[in-house]
Design goal:
By secondary structure, the chain is mainly α. Helices cover 66% and strands 0% of the residues. It has helices at residues 16-30, 38-51, 53-66, 70-77, 83-98, 104-117.
């Protein structure tokens, strides 16, 4: 059970750097097990619909260029300082991973981000 994810921003309230990090983290997370499942794809499509397809695609393209590895994502995550934005990003990524069951590598990435941002979570 989550203990501190309820006080978060809506995706539309995230600023550009936060959105790009969220999308980059989700893309890296979805590919962590070398395939994007139907559930992960559906979650990405839902986020795309929420942001607007063109806006999502532009940010996804930028994120793929900027974040070529999880190390790039974690380096950029250090600059995200708004706790409510951190929780929104984390929850969206966690929900993506939960879609088809969190595998060990996804769990490790989520746990690392949770520790960096002092987020308490479980699944």
């Amino acid at each position: 059970m989550d203990t501190n994810l309820s006080d978060r921003l809506a995706i539309q309230e995230l600023v550009e750097a936060e959105l790009e990090l969220m999308i980059g983290f989700m893309l890296q997370l979805a590919e962590a097990d070398d395939e994007v499942s139907e559930e992960e794809s559906a979650h990405l499509k839902a986020v795309s619909a929420e942001l607007g397809r063109d806006a999502f695609m532009a940010r996804a393209k930028a994120a793929r260029t900027r974040f070529t590895s999880m190390e790039d994502v974690f380096a950029a995550a250090e600059s995200i300082v708004r706790p409510q934005a951190q929780r929104a990003i984390f929850q969206c990524a966690r929900d993506l991973a939960l879609g088809d069951g969190i595998v060990a590598e996804e769990y490790a990435h989520l746990e690392r981000l949770a520790k960096l941002w002092h987020i308490t979570w479980s699944y």
